[in-house]
Amino acid sequence: MGSDIQGYFKLSVDERFRKLMEATGLSEEDIKGLRKDSTSMDLLDGMIENVVGTFELPVGIATNFLINGKDVLVPMATEEPSVVAAASKAAKIARVKGGFRAKSSDPIMIGQVQLTSIHDPEKAVSSIKEAKDDLIELANSKDPMLVKFGGGCRDIEVRSLYGDMGPMVVCHLLVDCRDAMGANAVNTMAEAISPEIERLTGGRVVLRIISNLAIHRIAKASAVFSKEELGGEKGVELILWALSLADVDPFRATTHNKGVMNGISAVVRATGNDTRAVESGVHSYASYKGSYGPVTEYHKNDDGDLVGSIDVPVPIGLVGGATKVHPSAQAAVKVLGVRTSGELGEVLACVGLAQNLAALRALSQEGIQRGHMKLHARNLAMQAGATAEEIDKLVAAMISDGKVTASAAVDILGQMRS
Q1: Which residues are catalytically annotated?
Q2: Domains of the chain in sequence order
Q3: Three-class SS of the chain
Q4: 371 or 266, which is more confident?
Q5: Most exposed among 65, 139, 262, 285, judged by the fewest C-beta atoms under 10 Å?
Q6: Model pTM?
Q7: What is the mean pLDDT of residues 60-88?
């Protein structure tokens, strides 16, 4: 079975779970971490400090994704209505023209060492560059296991800066982290070489920390979206006009990229990765070339179809952290079927592009509220106290009356019951 599961949203939760096992070939044991109460409090107590309970988010499955010729079902952990449905819809549109094409660069992360209290920055830069090979060897000696698996410090870049406290020299360790996000390895290496940098320069090291602006760890994705699926030539034109505003206006570009992150962050969260690291990296990357802009691009091809692409930094991993210990994250990774951090990054890029296309299509053609309204109405129905048997009827009544508000939900529910 592929990822294009028809009528998945119509099934009950238990039916969806069984269909997920059937589609992926996974056993109930493999993905039991997605079920409620699958995580023990003892495990959670070991993950962070002062644990008192849990805060649950729903995990949905985005369907229809075809990535590099492979069907992929995508777990997404999010509280926002319409995100999973929008990603699934856009992926279905992309399937018409062959799905998504994605690739990723080597998993290189940057570790920064900040050198201060220096009288001659140029001399300090020269001293560090001359000792680069020895510094790389010293850094790699601190993580022989990473080196054994083909990773490790690859290079050291040095630059001088001037801040309000005076001159500084900043060293960038370029570390191949393989399938780890890399924070522990990079920070350890940065700390290890700091005393030697101080000895070489006579300066003082202050910061030794990873950067989440992962400009060397990039995932790229592209897809062709059939004009017929977008409302014809007019639909394509409207989307291009929407992108045009994001290209020149940071107020629009910020919300444009937030839509991208609706999808990316949901997958990052589901796989136990660091949403803050990815979000800060993507938004910083959006302004890396000098001004803040969209991380996606679109153009019309010779057939009149819309071609979309995305480039995003992906500081994520499959080993270490919550990804390896939390049962829900482990189950999500198994559902995705990814084997490397690069493959996971490629999924993130595809989901981000799909989410963005869906948002632009809705915004430019029908307004964002139409798609949100039914799901918002369900939330209001539950808040009003509707039972499972009453929710659908109450939602239909609110939408029919054009009154999707908390007070309307209470009033209509009262009328239904009387």
Answers
A1: 80, 258, 274, 372
A2: 8-101+218-366 (3.90.770.10), 108-211 (3.30.70.420), 371-417 (1.10.8.660)
A3: CCCCCCCHHHCCHHHHHHHHHHHHCCCHHHHHHHCCCCCCHHHHHCCCCCCCCCCCCCEEEEEEEEECCEEEEEEEECCCCCHHHHHHHHHHHHHCCCCEEEEECCCEEEEEEEEECCCCHHHHHHHHHHCHHHHHHHHHCCCHHHHHCCCEEEEEEEEEEEECCEEEEEEEEEEECCCECCHHHHHHHHHHHHHHHHHHHCCEEEEEEEECCCCCCEEEEEEEECHHHHCHHHHHHHHHHHHHHHHHCHHHHHHHHHHHHHHHHHHHHHCCCCHHHHHHHHHHHCCCCCCCCCCEEEEECCCCCEEEEEEEECCCCCECCHHHHCHHHHHHHHHHCCCCHHHHHHHHHHHHHHHHHHHHHHHHHCCHHHHHHHHHHHHHHHHCCCCHHHHHHHHHHHHHHCCCCHHHHHHHHHHHHC
A4: 266
A5: 285
A6: 0.91
A7: 97
